[in-house]
Design brief:
With 443 residues, this protein is α/β, with parallel strands linked by helices. It folds into four domains: 76 residues, GMP Synthetase, Chain A, domain 3; 150 residues, Rossmann fold; 63 residues, Helicase, Ruva Protein, domain 3, CATH 1.10.8; 91 residues, Orthogonal Bundle (Chromosomal Replication Initiator Protein Dnaa, Chain: A), CATH 1.10.1750. The chain has 20 helices and eight strands. The protein has a five-stranded parallel β-sheet, with helices on both faces. A three-stranded mixed β-sheet has the order 1-2-3, with helices on one face. The protein is globular. The two termini are 49 Å apart. The relative contact order is 0.07. The structure holds adenosine-5'-triphosphate (ATP). Adenosine-5'-triphosphate binds next to helix 5 and helix 12. This is Chromosomal replication initiator protein DnaA.
């Protein structure tokens, strides 16, 4: 199909669905190809693709057929990443034959919001991005889903590219590493594979937990790792958990991964979520200055969507798209309507029973002692911790919490909460225990 035909179809569509809808949804589509009954379009985001497919798919299909195109199906794929808030000055030239995956232009240090939960990871990433002498090798970033590990790795790569364009910086997922390795095995070119990976200056492998249990890939990864460390080349690794906790990962790899700096990206807190939302809004306003957002909407979202940043971003994108589509200001009502499914699944549903179970596991006491009458310190302290967490992570009242802890009085719960607050300030072990427990419970 020619551009001209698509142009004519667009004119008809614009009349049918109105200027504003057309500008929001159809203009961003780029016809990629029509072949074997499938018309393929590039879209700026998967959200736009889904929306167009659901709301305008039939109309587009009808028009294509009316213009003589034998199309039975439409396909939308994300062509280029969304515009970055601050674009890197110049995208890096891909190094010929390098095995890396492309970098996302949005994932830069400028667009990374720093808060308490990620400040250490951010500082370490910045340090590595400065280049120069390798101070810790590898840098191992870990944390739950969607907390910014990939973002930081890409940011390092962008910065290194900008500062030292000659450096061979390679970013890829552990899955891609395995895929390349299997391909090399199939083509009997493992030497080529080894040479390629050993010639990089900076290697970043994302989601390394993927190679756990995959014996020969682990073996190859281990040798690549050692060869690069011996040459004093920087390695950056990410995973969803600490090296020691990755099941089925060889011990020697675990210990290698622990040799450098291991940093944890903690689950986001309210302030960080709000900061990220504010940054996205500022970014969006550059494109749509007329965006009207009622007071309290961002605070509401930051409070309610605690799962991960990806979900938070998705919620905001949907809200923007919806508001643009219907030409309405983003009010609290619109937010609740439009995001009801996300809000439902993001509700924090920690129960007192869960807290009791996790806390007794953590302190290695019996669950029955959590609610039982015994009062020695080794049992009373975990019980107080569990009461404290029940107060902070559930909506239960003090009397209700007391009842669930073996029928204790609400003043006992109050005392426990106060006691743990005091201990937190004085005893870093308690603070660390609480951090870990919160993380497992909320994660
Ligand atoms: N601190 C932050 N500031 C701005 N954006 C963030 C931040 N943390 C995460 N994000 C955004 O959240 C999304 C998910 O982040 P990312 O892909 O880096 O997560 P991840 O930790 O690699 O997760 P996964 O383990 O699922 O791959 C990205 O769009 C990223 O830009």
């Amino acid at each position: 199909m020619t551009e001209e035909t698509w142009g004519r179809i667009c004119e008809t569509l614009e009349q049918a669905i109105g200027k504003s809808n057309f500008a929001t949804w159809i203009s961003p589509l780029k016809l990629h190809s029509v072949s074997q009954g499938v018309a393929r379009f590039d879209v700026p985001t998967s959200f736009v693709g889904d929306w167009v497919s659901r709301n305008f798919g039939d109309q587009i299909l009808r028009h294509l057929v009316r213009h003589g195109e034998p199309v039975q199906r439409l396909e939308f794929s994300v062509a280029a990443p969304r515009r970055a808030p601050v674009q890197p000055a110049r995208p890096p030239e891909p190094v010929a034959d390098m095995p890396g995956a492309p970098l996302d232009a949005r994932f830069t240090f400028d667009s990374f919001v720093v808060g308490k939960p990620n400040e250490l990871a951010h500082a370490a990433a910045r340090r590595v991005a400065e280049g120069g002498a390798v101070s810790f090798n590898p840098l191992f970033l870990y944390g739950g889903v969607g907390l910014g590990k990939t973002h930081l790795m890409h940011a390092i790569a962008w910065d290194l590219h900008k500062k030292s364009p000659h450096l061979r910086v390679v970013y890829l997922s552990a899955e891609q590493f395995m895929y390349r390795f299997v391909q090399a095995l199939r083509e009997r070119d493992t030497m080529g594979f080894k040479e390629l990976f050993r010639s990089v200056d900076v290697l970043m492998v994302d989601d390394v937990q993927f190679i756990a249990g995959k014996d020969s890939t682990q073996e190859e990864f281990f040798h690549t790792f050692n060869a690069l460390v011996d040459q004093n080349k920087q390695i950056i690794i990410s995973a969803d958990r600490a090296p020691g906790e990755i099941k089925d990962l060889e011990e020697r790899i675990k210990s290698r991964l622990q040799c450098g700096l291991v940093v944890d990206l903690h689950p986001t807190d309210y302030e960080l979520r709000l900061g990220i939302l504010q940054q996205k809004v500022d970014d969006y306003r550059q494109q749509y200055p007329d965006l009207v957002l009622a007071d309290g909407v961002l605070e509401f979202l930051a409070h309610r969507i605690v799962t991960n940043v990806r979900v938070l971003e998705g919620a905001l994108t949907r809200l923007f798209a919806f508001a643009t589509l219907v030409g309405r200001e983003i009010t609290m009502d619109l937010t609740q309507d439009c995001l009801s499914d996300i809000l439902r699944t993001s509700e924090r549903k920690v129960t007192i029973e869960e807290i009791q179970r996790k806390v007794s596991e953590h302190y290695n006491i019996r669950l029955s002692d959590m609610i039982g009458p015994r009062r020695q310190r080794t049992l009373a302290r975990p019980r107080q911790v569990a009461m404290y967490l029940s107060k902070h992570l559930t909506e239960r009242s003090l009397p209700e919490i007391g009842r669930r802890f073996g029928g204790r009085d609400h003043t006992t719960v109050m005392h426990a909460v106060r006691k743990i607050d005091e201990l937190r300030a004085a005893d870093s072990q308690i603070e660390e225990d609480l951090r870990l427990l919160r993380r497992t419970l909320e994660g």
